Amino acid sequence: MDFPKKLQQKLEGRKAVNALRKLGSQNNLIDFSSNDYLGFSKNETIFKATHDFLIGHRISQNGATGSRLLSGNHPLYSVVESVLCNFHKSEAALIFNSGYDANVGFFSCVPQKDDIILYDEYIHASIRDGITMSLAKSYKFKHNDIEALENMMLRHSKPVSESHQNIYIVTESVFSMDGDSPDLIRLSEICKKNNAYLIVDEAHAIGSLGKHGVGLIQDLKLESQVFARLITFGKALGCHGAAILGSDNLKQYLINFSRSFIYTTALPPHSLATINAAYNELISTQNGVLLKRNIIHFKSEITKNNLQHLFIISNSSIQCCIISGNERVKSIAKKLREFHFDVKPILSPTVPKGQERLRFCLHSYNSTKEISDVLQQLATFATTMTC
């Protein structure tokens, strides 16, 4: 059969603007691209601890056998969810198969008809997809603009109050494509003042920010001010899965109404044992200290190489250099690759046109020399860049 013409035209459109995505392969380049911030994905201690835990508890099961509501709710779920509650100071935790599943599952079922969702314009695609599945009304606000958000809340608060509906405010503690953070303290105060429900995606903060990697919400002692926190295990924790942290009532609601939770095969015991081992490693190692050192060094090297005007201000593991134009940013990434640095170009339409960028992901295992060298090489190409 011929491939549908409309689909072929969309592929050709991507090719025309040099934005066609392709699957790459793993390489031996110096890693400035992965989300493995603490190096846990290759951590031998975690690997061995997972194996020993399974053997010690006589668990030799490969698959989950079904959804958690059928046959897949292995006893390890309650163990790991208890660990999450204690570590993250949450009343309840519910594990999902991925961050995407968690966000789609949450936003498609929690906000109800005539509720209002106000979300940061740079929010993750998984949240946007969940919102589109919701019956609630949704509006985006300018990135990290608290005043713009407050004005929107004031416009909607009266009719929402009169109709007994709810306002949900959605943001991230660290934005994946900018690496920056909102003013979470002020945001929580505004939500409290307007009786709005605050939801924070902490995917890129867990493991990399706060004492022992607790994330920004806990670091700022805002746990009681947040209706729901999304945490993921596939980034700094180096394994797989995600969880939503919140109240017992929220957990029971999601178990009953979140379709991405109800209608999917559960994670296997091995995945749960790995999450458990990763949290033990998070508490006992100094990887977080090394990561913070590298973030500070990277920022100092930005200044040393006079690259401040190209970089988005960020205190996280994600540091982004704006180089407008898909062709230009791909060319710079290719040049860095020739010097054995794996730095990914982020193209439009993933980011707005004109905001294409090199996305540097920093890790505890990057050496200070590697950081200095990659930015020195970047500086040699600076004259060809325009914002």
From TrEMBL:
Residues 28-371 form the Aminotransferase class I/classII large domain. Pathway: Lipid metabolism. Its cofactor is pyridoxal 5'-phosphate. The keyword ATP-binding does not apply. The keyword Zinc does not apply. It comes from the Bacteria. One of its GO terms (molecular function) is transaminase activity. Belongs to the class-II pyridoxal-phosphate-dependent aminotransferase family. BioF subfamily. This is Pyridoxal phosphate-dependent aminotransferase family protein. It comes from Snuella lapsa.
